[in-house]
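Notes, Module 5: Reading structure tokens.

Key idea: the token line is not a picture. It is a compressed description, and you learn to read it the same way you learned to read a sequence, by spotting repeated patterns. We will look at two proteins. The first is printed below with its tokens.
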Amino acid sequence: MGDKKNKREILKEKIQDFCLMDDNFLSSVFDGNIECTELILRIILNNPDIKVREVRTQREIKNLRGHSIRLDIEAKDENGRPIDIEVQRADSGANVKRARYNSSLMDANTLMPGEDYDSLPESYVIFITANDVMGAGLALYHADRVVAETGKPLGDGTHIIYVNGSYRDDSPIGKLMYDFSCKKAADMHYKVLADKVRYYKEDAKGVEAMCQIMEDLIVDEKKEMIIKMKASGKLSDEEIAGITGFTVEQVETVIKEAGIPIE
């Protein structure tokens, strides 16, 4: 019991150090949260009237012939426009070709068989980055396709936006980026965000829910480790159990569920 209590207390301490730039915490705050999603989109897209009809986090888009993707926040507005919001601490995670790829897979999963290309809605890929990855000191960077010879927009409906998470001033975007890096709900500018952060950091039920999410993630990560170690063929089930803290029986169950032959 003592070890379990200590682990739970450690998780609670980690939760207090989270902010919205942390992937798992972000997912919990925004999953199904239309109000919070509308807030950030209204600010980033400079559209106070935008309405979100659905939102979910960590949605995987499968590519049966290539690399699949997992969207941090996937939303659709009232007009059905798909929106991908990615939050990245590391500059490498905000690669422009990743934005291009996300945009392409969103398109591929939007147009139904038999539909005309004109049916493709506008789409948005938004990267909120901890650092100013574009390096010009601006709050926002809009990357829309233009015709090189005329300088006019191509008008294909795709939009890629980079948000400088280090930007600070008294504008709505400056305050929003401050809130994304803020660890205390009491110090945040926007109430709808502060209320959700407060729930997962200060409310007993919210803290418990966040602890459970983290524990489940730790288990999932260990299962992935088991599969990789078994696939390498270098370690026995007993050795894998010793590394991961699982029992040999649990290791064998993970291996069986993964479809790896047990010798």
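Here is the second protein, with the sequence above and the tokens below, as before.
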Amino acid sequence: CCDSVYRGRLALAPGDAVYADGQRVPTDQFDLVGPVPHVILIQRAIPITIVDGSTTQTITTAALTVGGAIAEAGITLYVADGVTPPLTDPLRPNLAITIQRSLPITVEVDGKTLQTRTHRTTVAEVLTDTGVALVANDFTVPGLDDPPPADGSAIRVVRVVEQIITETKPLAYETQYQAIADLEIDTTQIIQAGAYGTTASRVRVRYENGVEVSRAAEDSWTAAAPQSRLIGYGTKIVI
């Protein structure tokens, strides 16, 4: 397009930018013979302030959006970083842009290690962002309402499984004696052999990440009564 369109009628100050049909055109490389664009935008350079954590800088930019100004300033953003105003907002003079830097976070869950970044304020929000769901008695270290660890330690998800099992134990039998009139004195005879009984108990076993950590008996009963051992002794006197 004609050079006079850019320079003859509209003077460019240092830092201003020219956009032809939405594409930024280097001001020192105008095409003198190319087709005339449909829309020519002269974006005047304006001062803005970028607050990035503890660093504050003021720049003059002709970018169109918040995101363009951050890129022009050479600042690298991570997906989880927060930016206020949003990246797509247009710039205005003396605008203050604030970057909330995300923390590198490690989540240990189901035998896997997930690496991510976040600017969330609680462990529960971090798990929601990473798609990790807790079921029943599952818990986390640190707790769900605690802030994500800033010292580089991992968020540990503990899977809890509880099972009810039945345990049995032998129940000892007693030995009883009974006189037998027709059995010669000083002799004995087994009348009934003893038999062990069985006690049963219902036990709740708790596993955390597949490792048993506790078990507690909930109730117990006699599954089979013991049978006493019966020994007869003679009382018959033989002359």
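Summary for the second protein:
- The chain has three helices and 17 strands.
- The first helix runs from residue 3 to 8.
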